[in-house]
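#structure-requests
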Amino acid sequence: MDLPPILAITMGDAAGVGPEIVARALTQGERHQWCRPLVIGAVDILTRAGRLVGSPLAWRKVPTPAEARFQPGTVDVLDPGNLTWDEVTPGVVCPAAGKAAAEYVLKAGELALAGEVEAMVTAPLNKDAMRQGGYHYLGHTEILAELTDAPRCTTMLVSGELRVVHVTRHVPLSQVAQLITRERVLSTITLTAESLRAFGLARPRLGVAGLNPHNGEGGLLGREEMEVIGPAVEMARAQGIDAQGPFAPDSIFWRALRGEFDVVVAMYHDQGHIAIKVHGFERSVTVTLGLPIIRTSVDHGTAFDIAWRGEADPQSMIEALRLAAQMARRRREDHDPTAVDV
């Protein structure tokens, strides 16, 4: 019997919306038909979140993934015992919640590396709470890159048919131009092309965005397109990658939505994030490329302003679960010697 993939789902920062979107996402629809969820978090907090959103699910603590039953109506929870509700103030930065949230990510990553789960899906962290809790990472990507010894990672955002990968991410805008080098652009292009097989794209079409207004206007508004980005695209094409560009940032996303490209390589954080979130904020998902494990995530933060009011939209979490399950099945097929490539 072809069982659905086992997904490790982190609860996220308990002071934010993580517990309630996990509870609501696992309640809606027949999730057990396409994934076997194992939540990494605190059972008492998840139970409380379930009551908040009116979920009929029961939350069952298990000591190891091997003892999970994956029964409809019950969610198996691997609880490290590192957080209780008394340590959490909803909507407020709590060092204990930040510390626990980072440890949930580390545990899920370890399970994925060991092959005990087939993918991991993460609820949001709060960077300030995590730092106050003793973990000085910028976010999930940095935690998992260190854990897995991944030499290069980047973020891809997915919203429906639009996919965007970033050359630079969490850096001040004033520093972006100096970080746009041939080596970094080429590395991002090659990593993206290599990683998209998990989406069933054997030869993906990459559209590469420029950095400056009007694509630099022939050097009048900046020379990065001529001296850095364009040469990196040509180097990628010489390696057999179907990359094109650079193209003006104000039109490339529209062209991708028309079907010209499978993915857009953006130069900096907001260039790509704005396009994704305008296109479909409620269903956008983050995927980390370059890891030896599959990791997807919601594409929003802890939303302290609405935390524990029962108002948080679970759609991004639902999409992250769905995408992780699809990628896990694709990886199974890639490693199945009996599978036939049609």
